[in-house]
Amino acid sequence: MGSPVRVLAEATPATRDRYVDLLRVASLGVVVLGHWMMAAVTPDGVGNLLAVVPALQPLTWLLQVMPVFFFVGGFSHALSYRSLLRKRPEGSADSVYAAFLRARLQRLLRPTMVFVLVWGAAALLIQLLGGGGGLTGVTLRLVTQPLWFIGIYLAMVAFTPPLLRLHERYGWGAFAGLAGAAAAVDLLRFAAGVPYVEFLNFAFVWLAVHQLGFLRADGRLGAGPGLRPLRRPALLAGAGLVTAVALVAFGPYPLSMVGMPGEKVSNMAPPTLALLCHGLWLVGAVELLRAPAARLLARPRAWRTVVAANGVAMTAFLWHLTAMLGVYGAMLALDAPLPDPATAGWWAQTPLRLAAAAVLTAGLVAAFRTFERPAPPSATAPATTPGTGSGPLAALGATLCLLGVLGLSMVGLAGLLEGRTALLIAVPVSAPAAVAMTLCGWLLVERAGRGRAVR
User: Fold this and answer.
1) Acyltransferase domain location, by residue (predicted)?
2) Rounded distance, CA 139 to CA 123, Å?
């Protein structure tokens, strides 16, 4: 018997698009590396390297790769939902939707909730013992911030069935509609000064990128009528890059494609039309690399590496900030020299810090990776089918999960004893309330997707 990774790699069907798996792992890896590089930690707090050295901000046009992950998500969600429809031809739309949500949320929320509960218990203990100041307090605020990505991804999962139907009816028109809505939001925001309208682009921008994944699933990002195989991705990349450059050069958009401390306008929070165009150029660029990547992934060793990384990617993403801040905390505790950010000494020390963060992340992955594995079906459990009304129940559960995860990413885990809150859609939310909301939502999705026993 070979290792589980080798067995999985060798069992890969010939029809599987291996490049998608590589993009999923690579995009999360770039995000992790970017977070490690941007952290400018001093004894006084945590800053942003891009704010210290603004000349480095153009690098975000390469390192801001979340659009690629959401693009890959659209591809995977389309295939997964269609597969479920084929397997349950007799099922109602409600039952298939509930089963789809349950299957997708299980693997996403299991490692996330373990992360939240472990850190929540640690945060409570620290504050009961009178801690929570200095770097510890900053850590308690920062470690949950990447959960915004989980919240947006939950929304994409929930919207997959209706948006997939729009895609099947209108194709590129569905994407154009979402992109046009994103442009209209920015116009109302910057030209008309309409308050709060910008938050709609959390949906329009990211769902437009997600819609590109549907187009890829149907082979519509490749050759079109009268076009050579690489012409459409090249046009997509070129148009996206030129438009993004023009928007930044002549519009109200900042240069950085990630959020910067103290900036009045961010391309990320909420997303802007400039970020959507940035996503277009990234999607076109990665599609241009598809053929050489496929040749690389045909090699057994390369494919085994991707399979192994995919099995722990979410766990590594959840814990990478913990590892990075742990390295800095150890340096401060040991009175190790911590040069000022962006100085020669800081850059010389960077490879050692990155290596230490990678080792600590690997240890955390080893400890928590089991929660990322899908739960095996019980041999004694009765067959079940979601019943009538399961779709709305699952949608309610997914909404609660989305709001809970986003709320937790905003409020953090500091100030638990003081009842610290953050404003989520005009409603103050505390960390315990956000966790309770997420758990209740997950239970609703589980209940709706599992359904009742079939006699």
Assistant:
1) 18-364
2) 10
Cα-based angle 185, 191, 195 (whole degrees, multiple of 5):
60
The DSSP string of 184-222 is HHHHHHHTS--TTGGGGHHHHHHHHHHHHHHHHHTT-SS
Q: Which tokens belong to 51?
A: 């704010």
Beta bridge partner(s), residue 423:
428
Instruction: Report how far residue 67's alpha carbon sits from residue 234's, in angstroms, rounded to the nearest whole number.
Output: 17
Quick one: angle between helices 300-310 and 290-297, nearest 10? 100
Residue scoring higher pLDDT (333 or 276): 276
Q: What HEC string does 352-363 produce?
A: HHHHHHHHHHHH
pLDDT of residue 85: 86
Amino acid at 312: V
- Residues contacting 95, CB < 8 A, separation 6+: 88, 385, 386, 387, 390, 391, 451
| Mean pLDDT computed over every residue of the chain | 87
Residue with tokens 């001093």: 42
Enclosing H/E stretch for 18 = helix 18-38
Q: How far is it, in rounded angstroms, from Cα 175 to Cα 54?
A: 34
Which residues make beta-bridge pairs with 424? 427
- Asked if the model's pLDDT at residue 41 lies above 90, the reply is no
pTM: 0.90
CA distances from 120 to 108, 113, 313, 410 (A): 18, 10, 22, 15
Which of 61, 4, 21 is closest to 275 using CA atoms? Answer: 61
Position 80 scores a pLDDT of 92
Closest CA to 44 of 118, 164, 135, 126: 135
Q: What are phi and psi of 428, to 5 degrees?
A: -70, 130
Given the structure tokens 């009268």, which residue do they identify?
226
- pLDDT band, residue 111 (cuts 50/70/90): very high
CA dist 376 and 181 (Å) reads 42
E strand or H helix that includes residue 45: strand 45-48
